[in-house]
Design goal:
- This protein is an alpha+beta fold.
- Helices cover about 35% and strands about 25% of the residues.
- The protein contains 3 helices and 8 strands.
- It has helices at about 30-55, 65-85, 145-165, and strands at about 15, 25-30, 90-95, 95-100, 105-110, 115-120, 125-130, 135-140.
- Helix 1 runs antiparallel to helix 2 (about 65-85).
- The two termini are about 35 Å apart.
């Protein structure tokens, strides 16, 4: 009988609590999507709140009760909260590595596991290139932010050059 192959090393991307970044030297957030998310959230809530008021004032052939109005306001709050998820992306980097927060998940990567920091032509987001042709999307650096994105990717590349493992 042959020996089973050795297990592959642990994942390159680790949960936030498993990697210490050290002092944060760079923190980036997108600009335009945050404005869009907040405006959309306010409009969604206003639309559903106004709808809840209007169905009480004017009958549409169906009897709306106060519970229906409350449900419309709650639905507006839920949708507004969903829109605000797009305001969450953030990148934090320090001596220990990089933390990438997307709309829902947060991951940390040690500098030793980052092969390159790239922003491919035509891409909407920057990315951290990892071993084995994998990558982690950095939604905090977005193409629509133009100069802000260019400065951010430059600063992130500088940190990678300082703390990352040089390629052999």
């Amino acid at each position: 009988m042959s020996r089973p192959e050795e297990a592959a090393p642990g994942p390159v991307v680790v949960p936030p609590e498993d990697l210490d970044l050290g002092p944060v030297e760079l923190e980036l957030r997108p600009h335009r999507i945050r404005w869009v998310a907040w405006v959309l959230a306010v409009l969604l809530f206003a639309f559903f709140a106004t709808g809840a008021l209007l169905v009480y004032v004017q009958s549409a052939g169906f009897n709306f009760r106060p519970a229906d109005q409350v449900a419309m306001v709650v639905l507006g709050l839920i949708l507004a909260g969903g829109a605000l998820l797009f305001a969450r992306p953030r990148l934090r980097a320090g001596r220990g590595g990089v933390e990438v927060r997307a709309t829902i998940l947060t991951r940390r990567v040690a500098w030793a596991d980052v092969v390159a920091v790239s922003f491919p032509d035509g891409a909407q987001f920057a990315r951290l290139d990892l071993p084995d042709d994998e990558y982690l999307v950095v939604s905090a650096i977005q193409a629509v932010d133009k100069e802000h994105a260019a400065r951010g990717i430059g600063r992130l590349r500088d940190l990678h050059a300082r703390y990352g493992t040089p390629l052999s």
